[in-house]
Write a structure and sequence with these properties.
alpha+beta
C-alpha cells in the first residue's frame, strides 16, 4: 500500500540534481508516513521548488528542526495488500466486528497511517498495533466515544491478505 507512495517519492528524489541520492525512510513519528534528508542536499530555492511540487500533488511536507523532511499523503485503498504471515486473524476479526457494531463517520488518518506502517513492518509490529487498537477502542466504547471511521475496507483487505 505504501509502496506506490514510496516509489513516487523515490522517483522525485532521484531526479534531484544532488551529489548523492537522498535518503527516504518510513517516518518514526506517527503523524508522518516518510522522512527524507533531502533538505541537507538542496539549496534554498531548490528545496522550495520541491516542497511546492509535492504539495501540488497532494503531499503534506514539512522540514523539521532536525533538518529532515517529513512527508504525508492520503492513503488510497489499494486493490490488495502484500501478504504478511502470522497475523493475528482473530484480533483483526474482533476489530472488524467492533467497527461493524459501532459505525462512525469520523475519519481517522492517524490510525490508518499507524496500521499501514505496522503492516509494512511485519506481523510482530502489526499484531502489537491491532492489540493496542482493540484496547483503546474498548476504552472508547466504555466512555461512549465514537470509534474511528473509514478503516473497515482497509482492515478487510488486511484480513484477506493475512497468512495464517
Amino acid at each position: 500500500m505504501l509502496t506506490a507512495l514510496r516509489r513516487e517519492l523515490r522517483a522525485r528524489l532521484d531526479a534531484l540534481p544532488v551529489a548523492r541520492p537522498a535518503v527516504l525512510r518510513r517516518a518514526r513519528e506517527e503523524a508522518w508516513l516518510f522522512a527524507s534528508d533531502a533538505p541537507a542536499l538542496l539549496e534554498g530555492e531548490a528545496l522550495r521548488t520541491l516542497l511546492q511540487s509535492l504539495q501540488a500533488d497532494g503531499w503534506t511536507a514539512s522540514v523539521g528542526t532536525d533538518g529532515w523532511l517529513r512527508l504525508d499523503h492520503r492513503i488510497a485503498l489499494p486493490e490488495n495488500f502484500s501478504p504478511v504471515p502470522d497475523v493475528d486473524a482473530a484480533e483483526l476479526d474482533c476489530l472488524l466486528s467492533l467497527l461493524a457494531r459501532h459505525p462512525s463517520d469520523l475519519e481517522d488518518a492517524d490510525t490508518l497511517r499507524s496500521l499501514c506502517k505496522a503492516w509494512e513492518e511485519g506481523a510482530i509490529t502489526f499484531n502489537r498495533c491491532i492489540r493496542q487498537l482493540h484496547g483503546s477502542w474498548a476504552v472508547c466504547l466504555r466512555e461512549h466515544k465514537p470509534l474511528p471511521g473509514g478503516l473497515t475496507p482497509y482492515l478487510q483487505l488486511m484480513r484477506a491478505s493475512a497468512i495464517p
